[in-house]
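Researcher: Structure for this, please.
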Amino acid sequence: MKSLSLTKVSLFVATAITASFIVNANEKTEADVVKAKDATTEVAKKSDAVAFSSLDTNKDGELSLSEVKASNNKLLARTFSEIDSNSDNLLTQKELESYVASAK
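Model: Predicted structure, token format:
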């Protein structure tokens, strides 16, 4: 039977500890990335809500085509009918969010 040297055992233990540290560090990094993405999404939603309310000049919670045209937002005016999923000629925040999510 071959004997194990203390150096080989120590090297094995050190390698195992290092590998464990790297795996745990990667898991934490991935968790941090997920948290950052969630925070970015939340900020984007709040920003979109502010932008939506700034276009809603009569403050009824919906955007009419005339409000969109008055805002000079050509992209929103051009895609108005696509975003208006229920074809009521009004855009809600939810319709806009759904449209943006489906476009990604």
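Researcher: Any notable elements?
Model: The helical segments are 6-55, 65-70, 74-78, 80-83, 93-103. The first strand starts at residue 62 and ends at 64.
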